[in-house]
Amino acid sequence: MQNSEALALSAALLAVAGDLTRRIDEGVRARGFEGRPAYGFAFTRLAPDGATVTELAVHLGVTKQAASQLVDELVRKGYVERGPHPDDARARLVVLTERGWACTRAAEEAAAEAVRAWSDVLGESEVRVLRDRLGRIAPYGPVRPAW
Which of 8, 35, 50, 56 is found 20 to 30 A from 86 (Cα to Cα)? Predict the structure, then answer.
């Protein structure tokens, strides 16, 4: 593959990722939730069993202080709560509240709508092929924002 082709592919993938993030964010807002895309990246780590602020910081690729500020914001908005850690008396476990779970479900619905729009362009079978092929090359690990 030529450098220019690789650059064009890179640009297309980044544009699709950015558009998908925007569509999910807009869909979440349209369903009555306030926030920003960083919330969703945090929620992926907090579901299903919660995480410590340190674990969340590693997942997001930010400092512990930045993760703590995000958690404070999420607590104020009613999306998460801090509680005792079941295995470490010194740590606090951050878990999604019912509102946090509802926001997560809204994001799933918005993501499904965005992918259905791809099916309108490519067809369902091509979207399945795209999912399978991207799954083969996608790195294993946390899905995090490009800060």
Answer: 35
User: If residue 128 lies in a helix (H) or strand (E), which one and from where to where?
Assistant: helix 124-137
For 88-142, what is each residue's pLDDT tens digit? 889 899 999 999 999 999 999 999 999 999 999 999 999 999 999 999 998 877 7
Give dist(CA 101, CA 86) in Å, integer: 21
DSSP state of 93: E
Instruction: Give the torsion sign (CA, 78, 52, 144, 67).
Output: positive
- Give the integer Cα–Cα distance in Å for 146 and 13: 13
**Single-letter amino acid code for the residue at 40:** G
**Segment (H or E) for 84:** strand 80-84
pLDDT in tens, 78-103: 999 999 998 888 989 999 999 999 99
User: What pTM did the predictor assign?
Assistant: 0.87
Contact 46, 96 (CB under 8 A): yes
Asked if omega into 37 is within 30° of 0 (cis), the reply is: no
When pLDDT is averaged across residues 57-74 and rounded to a whole number, the result is 96
Contacts of 126 (CB under 8 A, 6+ apart): none
Give ∠ CA 140-143-145 in degrees, rounded to 5.
140
